[in-house]
Write a structure and sequence with these properties.
Elements (H helix, E strand, L loop, with lengths): L1 H26 L13 E5 L4 H12 L3 E6 L2 H15 L4 E5 L5 H14 L5 E4 L17 H24 L6 E6 L25 H20 L5 E7 L12 H14 L3 H13 L10 E3 L2 E2 L10 H11 L4 H8 L1
Parallel strand pairs: 1-2, 1-4, 2-3, 4-5, 5-6, 6-7
Antiparallel strand pairs: 7-8
Helix pairs in contact: 2-3, 2-8, 4-5, 5-6, 5-10, 6-9
Length: about 325
């Protein structure tokens, strides 16, 4: 009986996987907007690989000036070459940005504010997953700083340019990348930034993704009246290099996600939709998945102001910087 069960499972598994793939691939949504981006500027963090690279290529195809950012020079140079060759758009720039360093974020933002005349799209896409749980030089949890706190600081510093660019008929847009895993995260301001606190490996990733949703909601509230909208995008289950830190297990997960669920191009579609669709240009503080508005964990909207205040403290924003960004 036991051997029969093993044989049955062995024979049934491929069929089940094929059915999963057929269903998933047939239901993956694609952004259908034909909107051009000529004369407009977009920043894509993590725009040198995976989902971010696909977003950057899409914007370049549509005529935008695209600034891709990551902390790796060679990866940035390779991505720059790829985008130009595939799109024919030469108005592409690569700039170094290490989201695990407050100094790097400030230098990047200062450079943008000095050299760029406008900023229409800010895609906070970069993210990491790691089994290593440690503090950065800034005293923050590594995963939390890269995925959330670094983007928080970057967004606030770039708000003056986003507000200057946005118009009532065409607001500037901020897209924060979240995840299905935000449902498993929680906003625990007293412990969330610690290392070695949570016994579940990589739990800080879930926390970082619920923070991105909460941040979007609170920023929407504080931007009332400004021509800037901010939303979150859930790319879905995507086969990308984010699983690399997990070793051979990560490689297996990446390939299975790629084959059964979404490729990086498919995973990029929701962020592209949020950035370009006419309907989403009139919405703010929402979460989207598979190119439509999706449900949000109730915990993401619980006391968003407290998370904001703690984030301001940790990234060392001054009252003057806040006033300049939010006035």
């Amino acid at each position: 009986m036991a051997s029969l069960l093993v044989v049955t499972v062995f024979l049934a598994t491929p069929a089940i996987l094929i059915l999963v793939r057929l269903y998933q691939k047939s239901t993956n949504a694609i952004c259908t907007s034909k909107k051009r981006l000529d004369g407009r500027t977009a920043i894509v963090t993590g725009g040198t690989a995976g989902i971010g690279l696909e977003i950057a290529k899409e914007f370049a195809h549509r005529g935008a000036r695209v600034i891709i950012a990551c902390p790796f020079k060679q990866e940035g140079s390779d991505a720059l070459k790829t985008i130009i060759e595939e799109t024919g758009n030469k108005n592409i720039s690569f700039k170094l940005l290490d989201l695990s360093s407050l100094k790097s974020v400030r230098e990047f933002a200062g450079n943008i504010l000095t050299t760029e005349e406008r900023l229409d799209l800010l895609i906070n896409n970069a993210g990491i997953s790691s089994l290593k749980d440690f503090q950065t030089k800034d005293g923050m949890n590594f995963i939390m700083q890269v995925n959330y706190y670094g983007h928080f600081l970057l967004t606030i510093l770039l708000l003056p340019l986003l507000k200057k660019t946005g118009q009532p008929s065409e607001p500037s847009r901020i897209v924060n990348t979240s995840s299905y895993l935000h449902w498993f995260g929680r906003i625990d301001n007293e412990n969330m930034n610690k290392s070695g606190y949570y016994w579940i490996p990589n739990y800080q990733y879930c926390n970082s993704k619920i923070c991105m949703v909460s941040f979007s909601r609170e920023l929407m509230r504080r931007l009332k009246g400004a021509n800037v909208v901010v939303n979150s995008a859930n790319p879905g289950t995507v086969g990308t290099g984010i699983y690399k830190p997990l070793g051979l297990c990560g490689l297996f997960i990446k390939n299975m996600c790629y084959l059964l669920f979404k490729t990086p191009r498919e995973g990029a579609q929701t962020a592209i939709y949020v950035a370009l669709d006419e309907k989403t240009g009139g919405m703010s503080g929402c979460l989207f998945g598979n190119c439509k508005e999706s449900l949000v964990s109730p915990l993401a909207y619980w006391d968003t102001a407290k998370l904001w205040e703690e984030s301001v403290r940790l990234v060392q924003l001054t009252d003057k910087e806040l006033e300049l960004s939010l006035k």
